[in-house]
Write a structure and sequence with these properties.
Low-confidence stretches: 157-170, 284-344, 346-383
CATH architecture of the largest domain: Orthogonal Bundle
Radius of gyration: 23 Å
CATH superfamily of the largest domain: Transferase(Phosphotransferase) domain 1
Largest sheet: 6 strands, antiparallel
Helix content: 25-40%
CATH topology of the largest domain: Transferase(Phosphotransferase), domain 1
Mean pLDDT: 75
Number of domains: 3
Length: 466
């Protein structure tokens, strides 16, 4: 489609990124004589009515925000039969590319977070929750302006009524996902604040607060593991900035700062917002004739088949009720964290991934054919299982919808008691607790709070306890 004229005025020049739902092109507006980014929906996505509606929803959402730290939408329409939208072109790279070079200076991280908070404050005031805030969705312009992009899975009052994102459907990116979002619960602005805490942590340490070999392990940590204080990584981080990040990462949304405006006040207290972001070592833009899609998985294919195999395993781990089994594939849709479906407006280089387990679970993704024939390993099949393996099994069933949330909480409490008894050498008491838990699983099945498939997987994890 290169050199094609869209809507009689936008000349496509080169692709900036491709995803399952759309391709983003660098283009020339021949009417106004300026460079723009044109996001053109993929042919293969047209069969999905909800994907088409989400595409239109993104244009309407962003166009209604109008903030200097949010990407601007200039135009939208249909080219032939393909929906498109036209956005400002950001001649820079995303924050992920910057973090891949190492942790940022404290004042730079604070300056970026302040601009992101300003964007969130405007979005939340308009009733929009982004739900996929992460470094790859924060574009860094050479002039020092941070732009928040990819509102494709944002939730508004309108989308809630329309049912574009159903309750119990997980969307977002595992490394930057709030606990309530991980369980498919309704989310509000505080989910974005949690993600901002993860971004701040990544800027200051070089990685998000929780990492793991697969997305499910990361989600488990978001739900159950407290983050390490920043100053254990970097003693130069001010104590009040460390406390702000810990507050943003609170498991309970009500324990987080009240709103993005409050975050900005506390960032100001952390000091050093004044330096211009033009002092940041921004990665250079690629040559004009070089195609550099911002899809992280593609950028790393040269690392070998072993890495590719792990990405396939990560993708399968998040396919809904089929998680860690060959059950029906429902509820979860998987995409790589560097997807350009909802952004692609940067002309910067492809960033290197900074952590494993950054698979994005987005509403616009499609599973690959190979995923339907592969069974992923689980903690339950691991030799010499531990109580932690059983806890992860419980979390998986909760996330897949096979276990009610209140029942999951009770099971986790039982497992904590078992772990405590085992640590104290009270093996006989622990074994009694395990037997009681087996009976309780049967009771949960009869009560309709646990599916037979879920019970089998949790029981298998219990059987593997060494």
């Amino acid at each position: 489609m290169q050199d094609q004229l869209v809507a009689g005025r936008y000349r496509l020049e080169q692709p900036l990124g491709r995803g399952g739902m759309a391709t983003v092109w660098r283009a020339r507006d021949e009417v106004l004589g300026r460079a723009v980014a044109v996001k053109l929906m993929a042919e293969g996505a047209l069969h999905d009515a909800s994907a088409v509606e989400r595409f239109r929803h993104e244009a309407n959402t962003v166009a209604g925000l109008g903030h200097p730290n949010i990407v601007t939408v200039f135009d939208a329409g249909v080219h032939g039969h393909l929906p498109f939208l036209v956005m400002e072109l950001i001649e820079g790279a995303d924050l992920g590319a910057l973090i891949s070079r190492g942790p940022l200076r404290v004042e730079h991280a604070v300056a970026v977070a302040d601009q992101v908070s300003a964007a969130l404050e405007a979005a939340h005031r308009a009733g929009v929750v982004h739900r996929d805030l992460k470094p790859a969705n924060l574009l860094m312009s050479p002039g020092g302006v941070v732009k928040v992009v990819d509102f494709g899975i944002a939730r508004t009052t309108a989308t809630a009524r329309a049912g574009l994102t159903a309750v119990a459907t997980v969307v977002g990116t595992s490394a930057y996902m709030s606990p309530e979002q991980a369980t498919g619960a309704q989310v509000d602005a505080r989910a974005d604040l949690y993600a901002l805490g993860c971004v701040l942590h990544a800027m200051l340490t070089g990685q998000p607060p929780f990492t793991g070999e697969d997305p499910m392990a990361v989600l488990y940590q978001h739900l159950h593991q407290p983050p390490r204080p920043l100053r254990e990584y970097r003693p130069d981080v001010p104590a009040h900035l460390e406390q702000l990040v810990l507050d943003l990462l609170a498991k309970n949304p009500f324990d987080r700062p009240a709103d993005a405006g409050t975050v900005r006040i506390r960032l100001a207290d952390a000091g050093a917002i004044a330096p211009a972001l033009t002092t940041l070592p921004l990665p250079a833009a690629p040559d004009a004739g070089t195609e550099r899609p911002r899809t992280r998985a593609r950028g790393r294919q040269s690392r070998g088949a072993a890495r590719s195999g792990r990405r396939n395993r990560e993708a399968l781990l998040l396919l809904g009720a089929a998680l860690f089994a060959a059950a029906a594939l429902t509820g979860y849709l998987v995409n790589t964290s560097g997807s350009t479906d909802g952004k692609g407006t940067a002309a910067g280089p492809t960033p290197s991934a900074t952590t494993p387990a950054t698979t994005a679970i987005t509403a616009s993704s499609e599973p690959t054919p190979s995923q339907s024939t592969t069974t992923s390993p689980t903690a339950a099949t691991a030799p010499q299982g531990t109580v932690a393996d059983v806890q992860r099994a419980v979390t998986r069933e909760q996330l897949s919808g096979d276990l009610a949330q209140d029942a999951a909480k009770d099971l986790h409490n039982r497992l904590k008691e078992i772990a405590k008894q085992r640590a104290q050498g009270r093996t006989e008491d622990a074994e009694h607790k395990v037997q009681d838990m087996r009976q309780h699983l049967a009771d949960l099945q009869r009560a309709g709070k646990l599916t037979a498939t879920g019970a089998t997987r949790i029981t298998s994890a219990l059987d593997a306890l060494g």
